[in-house]
Amino acid sequence: MKYLLIGLLVLGFFSCSEPQSQITSKADYDKYLVNNKNPKTTSKYFQLWNNKITADSTEILSFGNVASEYTRYFKNTGNISYLKKAEQALSKAVEIANINKESYAISLARNYISQHRFKEALQMTKLADSIGGSNKETQSLYFDVHMELGNFAKAERYLDSIKNFSEFGYLIRLAKWNDYKGDLDTTIKMMEKAMKKAESSNNHYLKLWSYTNIADYYGHAGRLEESYHFYLKALNIDPQNAYAKKGLAWIVFSHERNGTEALRILDSVTAYHKAPDYYALKAEIANFMGDEIAYENNMTNYYNQAQNEAYGPMYNTYQINYYIDYDRHLKRARRLAEIEVENRPTPESYSYLASTYLEMGREQEALKIVEAHIIGKTFEPGILLNAAKIFKANQHFEKVEALKPELIGAVYELGPAAKKQIYDL
Fold first, then answer.
1. CA 60 vs CA 38, 98, 261, 282: distances in Å
2. Contact status, residue 139 vs residue 162, Cβ threshold 8 Å
3. Most buried pick, 73, 207, 227, 301, via CB within 10 A?
4. Contact in structure between 140 and 173 (CB atoms under 8 Å)
5. CA triple 67-109-156, angle to 5 deg
6. Alpha-carbon distance 400 to 388, whole Å?
7. Could you tell me the superkingdom of the organism this chain comes from (predicted)?
8. Mean pLDDT (10-residue bins), the chain, 425 residues
9. pTM higher than the cut 0.85
């Protein structure tokens, strides 16, 4: 789901209490919201490994173990410093390793993906491949990186090279590929097969990952009771899983129109998980509710956190929305959008660039981008909504009408405020 920052709406057009079927129950999830503690970010084993690392250390195993722990701490806390420390450990391991260098290169590539440094991830993947990395593992990584870079034809070739319907890794990538193509039914079928494999292996991490991802896909398909069920299953495994709680909050907000309860859920997350995007979502919810004070406070919290230089390009797209919808620094928004297009020329990146041109009154340039890089190349509702706005600005009303049915069907994914935007097209 895409959490877009939006401008203040005319209050009262859609009430937060607009009648919707009730899916969630506090009795189901309240136990996961109380007694939240800061996740542990050390252990005796971590200290043992970390103490072996010195400026001239050659303790390769320690570098790998420490990096793994830092990565886990990042996922649990949202604290970017842990991801950067993992990068440092892995970079040193790649530099000095004589044995298993390819495995450290693969881990560093995945670290770069998490940081949205996709071109560097590709270079590290090539390094792993050149020194004899596992063919299946490197081919899988090539698929992941090329999907992020928008090299979809290459990604498909790498996906074909690892084809094996009995393997979890192939199934989740096949699901992602079909999602990109807009075939949500096949996406869900593949993800369900992968989930069954995760359950049969009883692998904690794979089950948790499967439950949150299938919950997302069910939500996109409008199967909200199933989506809710699997977010709860994820929390049963990891009661502090921030992503699952965000999923619950989205159901409560987007479907049930209960912004107050959605904010309560998210408040329990931001008490210990510090990623800026949670504040961006809280701002969106407060904005829809008409709570200007909460909106301003959460936008301020988002901005203050996102300014940390350690994030690099990770929050560029959020920042573009911030400059367009809140701060109105359109030149800054355009520059960031140009950087995104340069770094990863995907339909999403081009959509941000087109949106900045539209806001600057350069409708025809925005239209050229939409026609060349977006239409026919993506099925993402948020991107298509932006395209429809640009078509309208250029008086291509028949193209707007052609997109409307799909957009109306995606209101849950887009969020409550999108309903007015769609009917205003």
1. 30, 9, 48, 42
2. yes
3. 227
4. yes
5. 145
6. 5
7. Bacteria
8. 38 46 95 77 51 51 80 92 91 86 94 97 96 85 98 97 96 98 97 97 95 98 97 96 97 97 97 94 96 96 96 96 94 97 96 98 98 96 97 97 95 94 92
9. yes
